[in-house]
Design brief:
mainly alpha, single chain, Cytochrome Bc1 Complex, Chain D, domain 2, about 140 residues, binds heme C
């Protein structure tokens, strides 16, 4: 191996390690997704019930039935089945202001590798939007 090959190898390994380090910045106690990560099929969805009082009331009931065991009645993440890493939405408020598409995606598909289940086979599309309308009021 001549010096050129060796220095190239060092550069390559260095770039690889640097790449991993910059990924680590994102690894907090729970996964953070960004608006640009939302899949195309979900990104442009808009809640047809936004601010609709009847939908908020229906969403509150659905939330208490299906979600509060982990997220708590008010999104504080203090339900009896909550893992320690679950975020408190009243502190991590970026969740409450995420786009409709982002919230729909997380609720419909769940979060792989976490306790967050996928709801698209349990809840209808309208029910998911009702739950999201309720989440917006937290
Ligand atoms: C068995 C526990 C459990 C249940 C039940 C549950 N979730 Fe979650 N959910 C989680 C956990 C844990 C996370 C956080 C995952 C992470 O980022 O580490 C999460 C994340 C989320 C997120 C993404 C934002 C965030 O906090 O990271 C939304 C939105 C969400 N849940 C909505 C719901 C809704 C709506 C329901 C009911 C239809 C529900 N969840 C039911 C455990 C649960």
């Amino acid at each position: 191996m001549n010096w050129k090959v060796i220095s190239l190898a060092v550069l390559f390994v260095g770039a690889f390690l640097f790449g991993c380090e910059s990924d680590d910045e994102e690894s907090h106690t729970h996964s953070h997704t960004h608006e640009q990560d939302v899949p195309k099929e979900y990104a442009d969805r808009v809640n047809p019930f936004d601010g609709n009082a009847a939908a908020v009331a229906a969403g509150e009931q659905l939330f208490k039935t299906h979600c509060a065991s982990c997220h708590g009645n008010t999104g504080k993440g203090n339900g009896p089945k909550a893992p320690a890493t679950i975020p408190d939405w009243t502190i991590e408020t970026d969740i409450l202001t995420a786009s409709d598409g982002m919230l729909y995606w997380h609720v419909a598909e769940g979060l792989t590798g976490t306790a967050m289940p996928a709801w698209k086979t349990t809840l209808s599309q309208d029910e998911i939007w009702q739950v999201i309308a309720y989440i917006r009021t937290l």
